[in-house]
From TrEMBL:
It holds the Pfam family HATPase_c. SUPFAM superfamilies: ATPase domain of HSP90 chaperone/DNA topoisomerase II/histidine kinase, Homodimeric domain of signal transducing histidine kinase. Keywords: ATP-binding, Cell membrane, Coiled coil, Kinase, Membrane, Nucleotide-binding, Phosphoprotein, Transferase, Transmembrane, Transmembrane helix, Two-component regulatory system. GO terms for molecular function: ATP binding; phosphorelay sensor kinase activity. The chain crosses the membrane at residues 12-37, 201-222, 243-261, 273-297, 327-349. It is a multi-pass membrane protein. Its main location: membrane. It comes from Murimonas intestini. Residues 458-495 form a coiled coil. This is histidine kinase. It is an enzyme of class 2 (transferase). It catalyses: ATP + protein L-histidine = ADP + protein N-phospho-L-histidine.
Length: 669
């Protein structure tokens, strides 16, 4: 049953039947309207009483006008009754229709004195008024008295005869509503009932055809786009056309139907030939309606009713305009719409509309204030993220309505969450790395201490084998280097974990540098390096930890001894710079410095990528961290193969005047 219901044969039959029944309905509507409006000038209004219809009013108006013309002619004519000669001419027939026995209208014409002039009956005025309907036209007073008022302007009759022979007369008209005589009124009555009966039959047939048409439309709607009930809806090419165009096509079809109906009613008339001629346009019109209907049904069943519409495209463009890249367009569009609505309401609106407009404007003002507060909230959140206050930046999304503001707030929260997550991961990684370094360093130091002790014991023995002596020397050198590495690892770990204690005291920076230069003088000479020292004559006092300060200076001199090109000079210079003491150490590197200065200060980073020297890549990192812990500044500058380390410490108030003026002396020299 299901397959039969959805079969192509049944669908085709249903479509053909829809076309046939639809065309019949269109043509039948035209015929019904024609008979209701135009048939012999009779207007059918679905009324039971002929006297209540417009058809009666039109026929009565025609008869009264004819009677007035007839009476005017009679009064002016020398021959009182041209029709009494027995002539059957057209003029005689026109006059004869108002004679007694030839018309359902009885009249009595009186002059200004009240004497009867003309009449087509022997009734009294009272009997005349009891026939059915009466009309009394007093052309002298210009008044009308009648018991019938449907769609007739009786007041116009006295005005039209002011200059005729009827002027000053009084006319009493009685209408026999039993219509015993065959005249214009009785013909209109018979046509009225004929149209009413035939129209009832046609409307019954039309109702039946429309019921069949509805059932066919329901069948087409159920089976549209599917071969079985559970099949996916298949769209046809016309379903991808914007829906507005299809609706326009349907409206054009309906408009053409009304044009066709008007042409048949007003010009062609309704007969067999005209109906058959109109069937082809009606078929085309109904086809457009069916195409639009089935396309809408398929779109609704496929749930894409809004996808292929101009309204959807316009809404999408408005939505895109609401994104950040089109904020200007969004603002302009909103402003134009707002100003247009205000202008229309102010110019064309009444007081209630203007009151409503004032309320809407207040709501818009509140909305602008809300947007401003939201933007301020987002601005504060971004500033908190920028300052690193990652525990306070979070925005409550529920405070933001859907749109660009909520999207931006969600993006800010996402950025903050990413920063927080990244910071947590980095902190955890640093902690794990520090723990690893500490644990490994401690694990290395225990066996390393034993190795160093045994090496010292072996050095106390007299070995006769020169090769063994060389092995012992290498073993001693490598164990000492490994010891230094372990100590540096532990110290770097302690610095990064914040467990290094700093005890600041006033110390002489100049004295520390001279001491370091003296200790490293021998090592520098071994590397064929000449140390050039330039320090002030007086003391240079700074607030620092002497032990950590020595480690910093020692690392710098050690690096100079390890990495400087033999036969060059090493410059150590100390001078005041405003309220700070600045120490610089410059040397020419033996290896090319193909690295950035910032990278040199990272842990385990060495200038010689081949690692042929004895360094471990921790010295500069430790020196920088210790300097920062003491409140100083540490920086490295590279210029080709020139290496320059710069340390800056605030000077203590006790520094000698000689040291403070050394910079001026240097400039004078």
């Amino acid at each position: 049953m299901n397959k039969w219901f959805y079969s192509r044969i049944v669908k085709a039959a249903s479509i053909i039947a829809t076309y046939v029944v639809g065309v019949l309905c269109l043509l039948l509507v035209t015929v019904v309207v024609y008979y209701a409006v135009r048939k012999d000038g009779i207007r059918y209004e679905n009324l039971e009483n002929f006297q209540d219809s417009q058809a009666y009013a039109d026929a009565l108006d025609e008869q009264v006008n004819g009677l007035l013309s007839y009476l005017h002619t009679e009064l002016e004519s020398a021959d009182t009754r041209a029709g009494e000669s027995g002539d059957q001419s057209e003029g005689y027939l026109v006059e004869n229709r108002f004679l007694e026995g030839y018309s359902n209208i009885s009249y009595q014409l009186y002059d200004s004195s009240g004497e009867q002039i003309l009449s087509n009956n022997s009734l009294t005025e009272g009997q005349l008024m009891q026939l059915g309907n009466f009309i009394i036209l007093d052309f002298g007073k210009g008044t009308v008295d009648t018991d019938y008022v449907k769609n007739m302007d009786f007041q116009g009759y006295p005005e039209r005869v002011t200059e005729s022979a009827l002027a000053g007369k009084r006319l009493v008209i009685g209408v026999d509503t039993s219509f015993p005589v065959r005249d214009r009124l009785s013909v209109a009555r018979d046509t009225f009932f004929e149209i009413r009966d035939s129209s009832n039959i046609m409307m019954t047939l039309e109702a039946f055809l429309y019921a069949v048409l509805i059932l066919l439309y329901v069948h087409l709607a159920i089976t549209a786009g599917q071969r079985e009930k559970k099949d996916k809806v298949i769209l046809r090419p016309e379903d991808y056309i914007p829906l507005e165009f299809l609706l326009l096509l349907g409206c054009i079809g309906v408009g053409l139907f009304w044009v066709l109906m008007y042409e048949l009613i007003e010009n062609a008339g309704v007969d067999r030939f005209s109906v058959l001629t109109a069937s082809m346009p009606a078929l085309v019109i109904h086809t457009s309606i069916v195409v639009v209907y089935l396309s809408i049904v398929r779109r609704v069943k496929a749930k894409v009713e809004w996808k292929h519409t101009l309204l959807k495209q316009f809404a999408d463009r408005i939505a895109k305009a609401s994104e950040f890249k089109n904020v200007v367009l969004q603002t302009i569009l909103t402003f134009v719409i707002f100003m247009s609505v205000n202008y229309i309401c102010i110019v064309y609106g009444n007081l209630p509309v203007k009151i409503i407009l004032a309320g809407v404007d207040l709501l818009m003002c509140g909305q602008l204030i809300r947007w401003s507060l939201q933007r301020m909230e987002m601005y504060n959140s971004i500033n908190m993220i920028n300052r690193g206050e990652l525990d306070r930046y979070h925005l409550d999304i529920t405070h933001f309505r859907k749109g660009s503001e909520r999207t931006l707030a969600e993006a800010i929260n996402s950025i903050g969450n990413s920063f927080t997550k990244m910071l947590d991961e980095n902190t955890r990684a640093e902690r794990m790395k520090a723990d690893l370094i500490t644990n490994v360093s401690h694990d290395i130091k225990t066996p390393l201490t034993s190795i160093i002790n045994y090496v010292d014991l072996l050095k106390g023995l007299k070995l006769d084998n020169d090769e063994a002596e060389e092995y012992l020397r290498v073993l001693d050198e490598k164990s000492q280097r490994l010891k230094t590495l372990a100590e540096d690892l532990v110290e770097a770990s302690r610095i990064s974990s914040g467990s290094v204690k700093v005890e600041l005291e006033t110390m002489d920076f100049r004295e520390l540098l001279l001491q370091a230069g003296g200790e490293f003088e021998g090592l520098l000479k071994e590397r064929e390096l000449e140390l050039i020292t330039d320090v002030p004559e007086g003391a240079v006092l700074v607030k620092a930890d002497r032990r950590h300060m020595w480690r910093v200076v020692e690392n710098l001199f050690s690096n100079a001894a390890k990495y400087s090109m033999p036969g060059t000079r090493v410059y150590a210079e100390l001078f005041p710079d405003g309220d700070a003491a600045v120490f610089t150490l410059k040397n020419i590197s033996e290896q090319p410095l193909n690295i950035r200065a910032e990278e040199l200060m990272e842990r385990f980073m060495r200038a010689d990528s081949s690692r042929t020297t004895k360094g471990n890549g921790l010295g500069l990192s430790i020196a920088k961290d210790l300097t920062v812990l003491q409140g100083g500044g540490f920086n490295i500058l590279l210029d080709g193969d020139l290496f320059k380390a710069v340390i800056r410490f605030p000077m203590d108030e006790g520094s000698s005047d000689t040291a403070l003026n050394s910079e001026e002396l240097r400039e004078n020299l």
